[in-house]
Design goal:
The protein has no helices and two strands. By secondary structure, the protein is mostly beta strands. The chain has one domain. The radius of gyration is 11 Å and the shape is flat. The mean pLDDT is about 65.
């Protein structure tokens, strides 16, 4: 199911949206080494 949002990622080539509890957040597609945030 697509995210329900009117906003767009600042750079879709490096960011993507994830839905969490019906909220949409913009995440980096590639995390820097050393970070294990999911």
């Amino acid at each position: 199911m697509p995210c329900k949002t009117d906003k767009e990622c600042p750079n879709t080539s490096t960011h993507k949206y994830k839905c969490i509890n019906d909220d949409c957040f913009c995440f980096y597609i590639y995390w820097p080494l050393g970070n294990s945030l999911v």
